[in-house]
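Lecture notes, part 5. Sequence design as translation. It can be helpful to think of inverse folding as translation between two languages: the language of shapes and the language of residues. The source text, in C-alpha cells, appears below.
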C-alpha cells in the first residue's frame, strides 16, 4: 500500500483503532471552533450574505424547536422551557441588526460577523454579577454554536440519526454513547481529531466492527461535508480524493483480508492451544447483550468482560433490576455452559449518563468512577447486583468489580453482595448461590495488594487499558501523549507478572481483558507471563486464536524472561512483534 499521496490526493495520518477499509462521502459533525474564517465579500454579494445569515437563524430555530419538543416529551415542560431562552436569542432584534450592519459595513462573511457580535454579548453577560444573566451567556454560546454549524455546513450530532445515505463521519470527537448509537448501515466508518486506541469510543468501534481512525489533529477543520475519502482503519490513514490506483490497491487489500478472515473462520471450533500443548482460555469482550451472538461465531469460549455501562447510556431513565436481569439472563442462556464474566457498572471516566447527576470533574478518570461511584450510589448498585445474582441461575455467570484500588473497596462490594443474597433468600427469589466474584486489576495499588485481594475472590482480570494509564500517568484518551502509552513498558510487564504470581500463590486464575489481549503482537508476551485467560474484542478473537495455535509456550516464556529483565519498552515491543510476525506473518501483511 502506497504510503505517499499520489497526485490529486491527500493523506492524513492518525491512529488506527478499528480495522477495515471504507470509502465514500464524508459528513463533518459540528462543534464551535475558536477560529472562524474571515472572508471579504464583494458589495454585490452582501445581500446574499445577509440572506445566508437569516436563513441560518431560521434553520436553527427549527432545530431548537425540535429539540424542545423531544425534551418536552421525554422530561416534561419544565426542562423543555430552558430552550425558550435559546429561541429568544434567535429573535433578538439588537443582535440581528448589529450582525447585519457588520456584514454591510465591513463586507465580511456572515459567520465571522455573527461570531464577533455574539461573542461580544456573551462576554458582557459572563461578566455580570447577576447569576441569572451569567447563565444566559451559556445559552447564547449554545445557540451561536448551532448557527455557526449551519453557516459552515457542519452537521449536528443529532443528525446522525437522520442520515439519508451512507457516509463516513468526521468529527472532532465522538462520545462512547454516541458511537454506540451509530447505524452501521449508514455509517461506513468514522475519523476523529482526538482520541486513542483504548478510549471507549475506539473500543465501541471495534465492537461494532466499524472502521475507525482517531487522532487526526484537525481533520474536522480541514474537511468539508461531501468530500470523497478512503478510510484505512488498519493503518490509520484517511485518503482524501483517492486516485483510481489507490482505490485499486485497496480493493486488493480488502480481498486479501476477506481471504484471511475465511481462513481464520475455519478455526472457529478449534481450541486455543499452543504448538506445545498449553491450553489457553480465549474469551470475548462484549458491550451489549445483543453481542452474545458474535461470541460463538468468533470462536471464543465465553465472555471475559461484559461492559454493562451501555445498558445505562442513551436513555432517559435508569434500567430497572428486571430489565438488567433480562439482559444478563439472555447472554448467560445463549452461551451456557460457557462462562460470562459480567463487570459491574463502570460509569465515569469517559462514560456518563445525563439523567443522573454526575458532577463535572477536572480529572474524571481519577474521580467518581466505577466501584467508587457504585459504593456511594448503593440503590443503583444493589439493583445491578441483584440482577446479576438472579441471572446466574440461567447459566455460568461470574461477576467482577472494576477499578478496585485495595482491600477496603473489595470488602465493601463483597459485603453488599452478601446483603443482596440474604435479601433474595428472604424474598424467595432464586439466584446463583455459587456465583463467583473476581476483581479487576487496573490500578498499581491493586497489584501491590493483589495477595489480599486474591484471598477473597475466585479470579483476577487485568484491565491493561487502565493499568497502563494509571501506572504511566498517561491519559488513555489523549492523542498528544499516545506515544507514551506503552503496553510493553518494563513497569507494565512487571506489574502483570506480579499479578500472575499473586494469583498463583493463592490458587486462583488470572486473565487479561484490556486491549493488549487483542493485539496479536503482544499475545506471546502475555502468554509467556503465564496468564490463564485472554479476553479480546470479538472481531479480533479469530486472529488471536490463529496466533496462539502457531506459538510454542516455551518461546513465549523466553520472550517474557527477556522482557522481565529488559530496561527498554521499545526493545520488548520489537522482540514481541518479531516473534508474532515470524509465526503468523499473514496477520501483519499490509500493516505498518
Ligand atoms: C481496562 O481498563 O483494561 C478494561 C478492560 O476496562 P475499560 O477499558 O472498560 O476501562
Ligand atoms: Mg478499565
Amino acid at each position: 500500500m502506497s504510503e505517499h499521496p499520489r497526485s490529486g490526493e491527500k493523506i492524513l495520518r492518525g491512529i488506527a483503532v478499528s480495522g477495515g477499509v471504507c470509502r465514500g462521502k464524508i459528513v463533518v459533525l459540528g462543534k464551535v471552533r475558536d477560529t472562524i474564517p474571515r472572508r471579504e465579500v464583494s458589495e454585490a454579494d452582501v445581500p446574499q450574505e445577509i440572506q445566508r445569515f437569516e436563513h441560518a437563524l431560521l434553520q436553527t430555530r427549527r432545530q431548537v424547536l425540535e429539540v424542545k419538543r423531544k425534551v418536552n416529551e421525554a422530561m416534561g415542560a419544565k426542562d423543555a422551557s430552558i430552550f425558550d431562552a435559546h429561541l429568544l436569542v434567535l429573535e433578538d432584534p439588537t443582535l440581528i441588526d448589529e450582525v447585519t450592519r457588520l456584514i454591510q459595513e465591513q463586507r465580511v462573511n456572515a459567520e465571522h460577523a455573527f461570531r464577533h457580535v455574539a461573542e461580544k454579548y456573551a462576554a458582557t453577560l459572563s461578566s455580570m454579577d447577576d447569576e441569572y444573566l451569567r447563565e444566559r451567556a451559556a445559552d447564547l454560546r449554545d445557540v451561536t454554536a448551532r448557527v455557526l454549524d449551519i453557516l459552515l455546513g457542519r452537521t449536528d450530532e443529532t443528525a446522525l440519526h437522520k442520515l439519508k445515505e451512507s457516509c463516513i463521519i468526521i468529527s472532532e470527537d465522538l462520545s462512547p454513547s454516541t458511537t454506540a448509537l451509530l447505524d452501521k448501515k449508514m455509517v461506513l466508518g468514522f475519523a476523529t481529531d482526538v482520541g486513542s486506541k483504548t478510549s471507549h469510543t475506539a473500543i465501541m468501534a471495534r465492537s461494532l466492527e466499524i472502521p475507525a481512525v482517531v487522532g487526526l489533529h484537525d481533520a474536522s477543520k480541514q474537511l468539508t461535508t461531501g468530500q470523497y475519502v478512503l478510510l484505512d482503519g488498519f493503518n490509520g490513514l484517511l485518503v482524501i480524493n483517492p486516485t483510481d490506483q489507490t482505490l485499486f490497491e485497496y480493493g486488493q487489500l480488502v480481498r486479501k483480508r476477506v481471504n484471511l478472515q475465511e481462513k481464520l473462520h475455519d478455526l472457529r471450533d478449534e481450541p486455543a492451544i499452543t504448538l506445545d500443548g498449553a491450553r489457553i482460555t480465549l474469551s470475548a469482550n462484549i458491550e451489549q447483550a445483543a453481542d452474545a451472538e458474535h461470541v460463538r461465531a468468533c470462536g471464543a469460549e465465553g465472555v471475559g468482560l461484559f461492559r454493562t455501562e451501555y445498558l445505562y447510556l442513551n436513555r432517559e431513565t435508569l434500567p430497572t433490576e428486571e430489565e438488567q436481569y433480562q439482559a444478563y439472563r439472555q447472554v448467560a442462556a445463549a452461551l451456557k455452559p460457557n462462562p460470562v464474566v459480567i463487570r459491574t457498572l463502570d460509569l465515569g471516566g469517559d462514560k456518563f449518563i445525563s439523567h443522573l447527576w454526575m458532577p463535572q470533574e477536572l480529572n474524571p478518570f481519577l474521580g467518581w468512577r466505577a466501584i467508587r461511584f457504585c459504593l456511594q450510589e448503593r440503590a443503583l448498585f444493589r439493583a445491578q447486583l441483584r440482577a446479576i445474582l438472579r441471572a446466574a441461575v440461567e447459566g455460568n455467570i461470574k461477576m467482577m468489580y472494576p477499578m478496585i484500588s485495595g482491600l477496603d473497596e473489595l470488602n465493601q462490594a463483597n459485603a453488599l453482595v452478601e446483603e443482596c443474597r440474604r435479601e433474595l433468600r428472604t424474598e424467595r427469589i432464586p439466584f446463583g448461590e455459587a456465583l463467583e466474584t473476581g476483581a479487576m486489576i487496573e490500578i498499581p495499588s491493586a497489584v501491590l495488594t493483589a495477595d489480599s485481594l486474591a484471598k477473597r475472590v475466585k479470579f483476577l482480570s487485568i484491565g491493561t487499558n487502565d493499568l497502563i494509564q494509571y501506572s504511566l500517568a498517561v491519559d488513555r484518551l489523549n492523542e498528544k501523549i499516545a506515544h507514551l502509552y506503552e503496553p510493553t513498558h518494563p513497569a507494565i510487564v512487571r506489574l502483570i507478572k506480579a499479578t500472575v504470581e499473586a494469583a498463583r500463590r493463592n490458587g486462583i486464575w488470572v486473565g487479561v481483558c484490556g486491549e493488549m489481549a487483542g493485539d496479536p503482537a503482544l499475545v506471546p508476551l502475555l502468554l509467556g507471563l503465564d496468564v490463564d485467560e485472554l479476553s479480546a474484542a470479538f472481531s479480533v478473537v479469530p486472529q488471536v486464536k490463529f496466533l496462539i495455535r502457531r506459538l510454542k509456550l516455551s518461546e513465549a516464556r523466553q520472550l517474557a524472561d527477556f522482557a522481565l529483565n529488559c530496561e527498554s519498552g521499545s526493545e520488548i515491543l520489537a522482540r514481541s512483534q518479531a516473534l508474532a510476525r515470524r509465526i503468523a506473518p499473514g496477520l501483519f501483511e499490509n500493516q505498518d
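The translated text above is only one of many valid answers, since several sequences can fold into similar shapes. The radius of gyration is 26 Å.
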